[in-house]
Amino acid sequence: MTVYFLVFMFQFFFNIFKTLEIKYTYEHKVNALLVNSVWINVVSLGSTYFALDRLLAGQWSVIVFYIAGSVVGKWFAMTKVNLYKRKVKRLYLKFKKR
């Protein structure tokens, strides 16, 4: 079950980072795009490794977690990321003033 959770989370974060990649490319934010690209590669390697490992072991149910993580990650990136980015920025500025 842990592997299924990992596949779900890797796909979740992959889709968030992929959405941010499109945004950063459009906004010409090169530094953010480069850092984001590293994270995309890390999570895609993890997701691919664990998903293929389970598939080759005959556990086809991992496909459900792979697709669910993808869909939920894309939804989260499109609807919630900006809200959390603002909260983190405010928290950072609050601690920086101390």
Using the alpha-carbon principal axes, give the shape: elongated
Q: Radius of gyration in whole Å, from Cα? A: 16 Å
Instruction: Note the run of SSEs as H and E.
Output: HHHH
The largest sheet is: none
Low-confidence segments, given as residue ranges, are none
| Percent of sequence in beta strands | under 5%
Broad structural category? mainly alpha
Please give the count of helices. Answer: 4
Determine the fraction of residues in helical runs and give it as a percent range. over 70%
Could you explain how this protein is built, in words?
There is one protein chain. The protein has 98 residues and is mainly alpha-helical. The protein has one domain. The protein has four helices and no strands. Helix 1 (2-27) packs antiparallel against helix 2 and helix 1 (2-27) packs parallel to helix 3 (62-79). It is elongated. The model has no long low-confidence stretch (mean pLDDT 89).
Compose a concise summary of this entry:
With 98 residues, this protein is mainly α. The chain has helices spanning 2-27, 30-56, 62-79, 81-97. The protein is built from four helices and no strands.
Write the layout of secondary structure elements.
Layout: H1 2-27, H2 30-56, H3 62-79, H4 81-97
Helix pairs in contact: 1-2, 1-3
List the defining traits of the structure above.
98 residues, mainly alpha, elongated
